[in-house]
From TrEMBL:
This is Uncharacterized protein. Residues 1-42 are annotated as: Disordered. Residues 1-18 have a biased composition (Polar residues). The lineage of its organism: Bacteria, Bacillati, Actinomycetota, Actinomycetes, Micromonosporales. It comes from the Bacteria. It comes from Micromonospora thermarum. Keywords: Membrane, Transmembrane, Transmembrane helix. The keyword Membrane applies. The chain crosses the membrane at residues 47-64, 84-108, 120-140, 146-166, 173-192, 223-240, 260-278, 311-330.
Amino acid sequence: MTKQPGGSSAAESEQPSPVTDEAPVAPDRPETAPEDGATGPSPVPGAPVLALLALGWLVAMLWSTREAIHSAAAGVTAISLSAFALPGVISAALVAGAAFALFGVDLLARRGRERATLRFVAAVATGLLVGLAAAFAVNLTYADNATTNVIAGTTAAAAIIGGAVAGARTAPVVGAVVAAALGTLIFVVAFSRARDPLFDLFGAGETQESLLSAAKWVSRTESLLAGLVAGLLAFGYLTWARRRAIRRDPAAPALRWPAYLLAGAGPGLLLLVAEVILRTGGRKLLDLASALSEADAVAQTSLGTSRLDNAIWVLFVGALTAMIAFGRTLGPTSRDEDEAEPVD
């Protein structure tokens, strides 16, 4: 009889064990729900602000180009002025298409629609809408001449390509590229006010050789500073995105160094893409500008080489700056963890 109570007591002691095993399962379910809801959408900090700023910059570039072409002093040099302003318009359209597409796919992500195909299609469609709107504005406000269709077509193409860039899965990196590229474009325009003093600083004189030497050093200084701006802005944006992700989910994985490398190099890559669009879609306008005179042909060749060199400098300096800034945030603990992870 003592065994039966003992057996019953053993059975009774075994019965609560499933209850105790199920007890931790119940609180786990409500904990996983908010985490899934928090980490589902890809965090893109400041996506609406980036879209509005990029749109404002595109409008400013289109308006300034229109004013330059329609100015009374332009006359027969309208083609030359259009060729000179077209690279800025293409770069602005690339950034605007990417920024608005990034905002669109972020809205989809917040609604739980994270399929890669849907994301890419939505990004390209958003870039297409921006491009069509810009092309319509060009055809509506610009004079009807040989340059109008070229400007409208290349602007639309650049916006579509920018939208396709925003279809990538790494949304914070794309946001960093957009923010850094926009800041770099604004910096280049603001830097134009310092070019004359720099020409004097680098020894520009009366001879053509001194002018070319000073122009080369001014261009390199601009590219170096633009790369620094691009790298610092990319690093700052990713740091901001990381902090916001930790607030939403403390267990969110940290971005590795390739993300910072790509974000820092992104503005330079966009400038290279803009150059490709210019030399393909805008070839007709460049040929017209080069055919005006021998001096215009030399100027267009020199400007093309300068833009290409500037894009390469921004690419490498931006990537290096972002990597150095990221490396300085790695303390001994972080480095030990990075070394321990492959062992585990």
